[in-house]
Amino acid sequence: MDTLKLIALDEEDLQILSAHLQDSVLKVSDIEYLVAEKKLVLDVNRFVWEQAADGKRRRSFERRRAALLFDRIYSVKATGIDHQRKDDVLSLLAIHFIVSDAPSGIVELTFAANKALRLEVEAIEAQLTDLGPAWQTTFKPEHEV
């Protein structure tokens, strides 16, 4: 399967990124805020939903290492995330955009266990890039409806 490279420049694009990143896992140490560059980078282990949703019965699934970059950031606020606990694992549930004064607003990354990152942005500008080959996993994330 080809590696994924996506860009989000509006709310609809961001929803597509969110779908591809649902159930990604990362450590707190995998989050880097580059204040001077107004960028936030997250290195994640992305569950490959596009492969899992192909309708085939499978015994194994895939994850890929991926980079998620947000640009044009004014500030980052964390809820429930202790930056001193670098090995804590975060599980990404969704990414949303809250308009404040279009095109600026808040990009909210919601994680399991009531954890979140809120990015105050000038405008939506995000990139998702797979970084290498996939590896197999037998675990497929499932959520109660």
Uncertain ranges: none
What string, H for helix and E for strand, traces the elements in order? EHEEEHEEEEEEE
Shape: globular
- Output mean pLDDT: 93
State the separation between the terminal residues, measured CA to CA: 30 Å
Largest sheet: 6 strands, antiparallel
Count of helical regions: 2
Architecture overview:
With 145 residues, the chain is mainly beta. It contains two helices and eleven strands. Strands 1, 3, 4, 5, 10 and 11 form a six-stranded antiparallel β-sheet that branches. Strands 2-7-8-9-6 form a five-stranded antiparallel β-sheet. The mean pLDDT is 93.
Notable characteristics:
145 residues; five-stranded antiparallel sheet; mainly beta; six-stranded antiparallel sheet
Note the topology:
Layout: E1 5-8, H1 11-21, E2 25-27, E3 31-34, E4 39-47, H2 49-52, E5 61-71, E6 73-79, E7 89-101, E8 104-111, E9 115-121, E10 126-130, E11 135-137
Antiparallel strand pairs: 1-10, 2-7, 3-4, 4-5, 5-10, 5-11, 6-9, 7-8, 8-9
Question: How is this structure best summarized?
Answer:
With 145 residues, the chain is mostly beta strands. It has helices at 11-21, 49-52; strands spanning 5-8, 25-27, 31-34, 39-47, 61-71, 73-79, 89-101, 104-111, 115-121, 126-130, 135-137. It has one domain (5-51, 62-132).
